[in-house]
Amino acid sequence: MPELPETETLARDLNASLVGRIIARVEVPHADVLRVITARSMQRLLPARVVERVWRRAKADIIDLTGDRRIVVVPRFTGGLLLRADAVPDDRYDAVRFRLEDGGTLAYRDVRRLGTVSVYDARAFEEFDRRLGKEPLDPAFTTSELSASLQSSNQPVKKILMDQRRIAGVGNIYANEALWAARIDPSRPGRTITEGQAGALRDALVSILVKAIDARGTTFRDYRDANGNRGGFAAQLAAYGRGGEPCVRCGARLTMTHAIDGRATVFCHRCQS
User: Fold this and answer.
1) I want to staple 110 with a disulfide (CB 3.0 to 4.6 A). Which of 79, 86, 146, 248 is the partner?
2) Active-site residue, selected from the candidate residues 2, 5, 75, 136
3) Residues 107, 148 within the same domain
4) Active-site residue 2, yes or no?
């Protein structure tokens, strides 16, 4: 957390609010979140640059600036980007603050400071981007594309879905949900998934991600959108976080295990095979 729907929500909110605004100065209360740049370099390089676009790649929010610079924020478990008006006080969990020339602050807030903030030029960003897999909401992410990826591995299908080098942006929540919706056991080796099953999985994944974006993401504890509001998709979850509860499809008790990839995996032993 946050995964694709949460970072997409943040990117859309910030793109609507930040484009054309100018960074006046940068404050770095907690430099341990920085990667590939120092606090001093960030404070020297970023002031006076204009925000051109905010968008998402995988689980990262990308802020394009004038002068060939991109801020790349990977929130991970407890991180988030918040846009505050002048009257709103700073937070003790702010790791980086971008003060805006026309007032207000874009803050990267991270309770556990497990996320990262980087600044790349075009070449460095290309290297970052090259390490990431297909975007599941891209039309190029077809059944054939997913099937080929699954057939190339003997790892559990859930682990393949969460491999950012193969499919970008899918984490534990939405892998659980997609596999439940497609009726596929998360522990099945990728090579055993037929093309028909891959098609059902691809369609389920895309549908769930779109619904989660429409609900502005999933909040259990820390995630908030750019305005500090909670996501609403938790009410629609059929598998994740429901271990021991009845399956909403068949009534069997949902199983929860950490055996597949060390993460909480919830599935229905009756529905998913």
Assistant:
1) 79
2) 2
3) no
4) yes
* Active site (annotated) includes residue 263: yes
CB 5 within 8 A of CB 214: no
Q: From the candidates 49, 56, 57, 59, give the one annotated as an active-site residue.
A: 59
Q: What does the longest C-alpha to C-alpha distance in the chain come to?
A: 59
Distance (Å, rounded) from C-alpha 7 to C-alpha 58? Answer: 8
Q: Does 56 qualify as catalytic in the annotation?
A: no
Question: Rounded to whole angstroms, how far apart are CA atoms 188 and 180?
Answer: 13
The pTM of the full predicted model, rounded to 2 decimals, is 0.95
**Residue at a domain's end among 108, 130, 152:** 130
Percent of the chain that is helix, strand, coil (3-state, to 5): 30, 25, 45
Is residue 59 flagged as an active site residue?
Answer: yes
Whether 135 is in a domain gets the answer no
Give tens-digit pLDDT for 34-82. Answer: 999 999 999 999 999 999 999 999 999 999 999 999 999 999 989 999 9
